[in-house]
Amino acid sequence: MPVDMSVPPSVFEGPAFNRIPVWVQQKLSPLAVQKIQAVYDFVENEVIPREQIMRNQIDSRRWSTPPLMHELREKAKAKGLFNLFLPIHFDESPGLTNLEYSCCAEVMGRCYWAAQTMNCHAPETGNIELLAKYCSEEQKEKWLKPLLEGTASSAYSMTEPDVASSDATNIGIEIRRDGDEYVINGRKLYGNCLWNKDLSFYILMGCSDPTNEDRWKRHTMLIVPCNTPGITQVRNLTIMGYDWAPEGHGEYLYKDVRIPAANVILGEGRAFEIAQGRLGPGRIHHCMRLLGQCERAYELALIRCTDPRKKPRGKLIGEFDSNIERIAQMRLELDAARLVVLSAADTIDVRGNKAGKRTIAQSKILVPILATKIIDECMQMYAGQGLTQHTPLPEMWTYARFVRVADGPDAAHRHQVGREEMKTAPKFQQRYEEYTAKAKILTEQYGFKYESFD
């Protein structure tokens, strides 16, 4: 794709663009360039300087959305930085491709909660895309529009405590039709915490037809308002010791919860059709943000390496050969991981979600593992201080470790990649048979006896 000459090359010299590969820069529209710069300015000038304020406000009222979050969301919305993630094929999209949004998301990742200020946080991104793709116009007006405007918030409820939810066909919470309503009974894990009263509704996946011979048509997705009678939050779930207030994660009991039939998404028995459609860009948004998180950890490591106050055995930390090699390895691996994520985003843009599923799975496997590794190396450079609240590194590491299972365990994604690769074996078999046939002919033409090892 030719360079858009309306974007002068000098634009890409700034810090908002200096980690973006040239081939990606060449694909950025003028709108994307403007948005990336605006996101960078917002995160650097509005978000990061207020991290301590955000912590203080959360500590004072742990299960209420901090006033600062509402304040920054209004600012971001006024600057046109809301819902940047929604792909361009949706009417509600702000106009960025997935590749262009990747560059924005990496900047957002520099602070854990920055994406939320721009309504680009999980699970909102996946839920908004799901509703935009599969809901009726009436449902969009009632449920999607408030999410896009930032006046409501949502959560996704699939995981259950009694089954292996990585195989979603095991999902067993009962959804039973009763006249013009559905009745829900069972238990769920995760999904944002009901204690935060800003949470508006869940998108819940359950089993509505357990005897259907086609196991892919047994399940239904529907919208469950959080104030519906019969939903009980048993407890908040800590993740690696953190309660992740004010959103949190809960364990829930559904007892005779009645939902209007109008809240069913797309139709009864179509949950897997919806789920497959949801497994697109949203699956790599975590990976995009983790790259930004790693860049910030890397910057902290560079600062530590060159701090004149820290001189073990009379040398700067960065003067030891082992640390020079550490810095180099982190830089190499981080740049390589970025290429994997950008390739996935570009594949989705050019060839669609289905064609991109392999690179999506690769990103989901590689990036969180690499993030925990890089952040751990940075913590090592800070020694004991790196384990405390003196730096954001411990929270960064914990979040990266959580993301490794947020969309399914590594084994599930590796299985998908490996299974797809196994399907390519026959074409290689054919190619190598052709090699053998040609080699036999050519060897004999040169006057030698062909030796076969089969």
Automatic annotation (TrEMBL):
<dbReference type="Pfam" id="PF02771">
    <property type="entry name" value="Acyl-CoA_dh_N"/>
</dbReference>
<dbReference type="GO" id="GO:0033539">
    <property type="term" value="P:fatty acid beta-oxidation using acyl-CoA dehydrogenase"/>
</dbReference>
<dbReference type="InterPro" id="IPR006091">
    <property type="entry name" value="Acyl-CoA_Oxase/DH_mid-dom"/>
</dbReference>
<keyword id="KW-0285">Flavoprotein</keyword>
<feature type="domain" description="Acyl-CoA dehydrogenase/oxidase N-terminal">
    <location>
        <begin position="37"/>
        <end position="150"/>
    </location>
</feature>
<dbReference type="InterPro" id="IPR050741">
    <property type="entry name" value="Acyl-CoA_dehydrogenase"/>
</dbReference>
<feature type="domain" description="Acyl-CoA dehydrogenase/oxidase C-terminal">
    <location>
        <begin position="272"/>
        <end position="420"/>
    </location>
</feature>
<dbReference type="InterPro" id="IPR036250">
    <property type="entry name" value="AcylCo_DH-like_C"/>
</dbReference>
<dbReference type="Pfam" id="PF02770">
    <property type="entry name" value="Acyl-CoA_dh_M"/>
</dbReference>
<dbReference type="InterPro" id="IPR013786">
    <property type="entry name" value="AcylCoA_DH/ox_N"/>
</dbReference>
<protein>
    <submittedName>
        <fullName>Acyl-dehydrogenase family member 11</fullName>
    </submittedName>
</protein>
<dbReference type="GO" id="GO:0003995">
    <property type="term" value="F:acyl-CoA dehydrogenase activity"/>
</dbReference>
<keyword id="KW-0274">FAD</keyword>
<dbReference type="GO" id="GO:0005737">
    <property type="term" value="C:cytoplasm"/>
</dbReference>
<dbReference type="InterPro" id="IPR009100">
    <property type="entry name" value="AcylCoA_DH/oxidase_NM_dom_sf"/>
</dbReference>
<comment type="similarity">
    <text>Belongs to the acyl-CoA dehydrogenase family.</text>
</comment>
<dbReference type="InterPro" id="IPR037069">
    <property type="entry name" value="AcylCoA_DH/ox_N_sf"/>
</dbReference>
<keyword id="KW-0560">Oxidoreductase</keyword>
<dbReference type="InterPro" id="IPR009075">
    <property type="entry name" value="AcylCo_DH/oxidase_C"/>
</dbReference>
<feature type="domain" description="Acyl-CoA oxidase/dehydrogenase middle">
    <location>
        <begin position="155"/>
        <end position="249"/>
    </location>
</feature>
<dbReference type="Pfam" id="PF00441">
    <property type="entry name" value="Acyl-CoA_dh_1"/>
</dbReference>
<dbReference type="InterPro" id="IPR046373">
    <property type="entry name" value="Acyl-CoA_Oxase/DH_mid-dom_sf"/>
</dbReference>
<dbReference type="GO" id="GO:0050660">
    <property type="term" value="F:flavin adenine dinucleotide binding"/>
</dbReference>
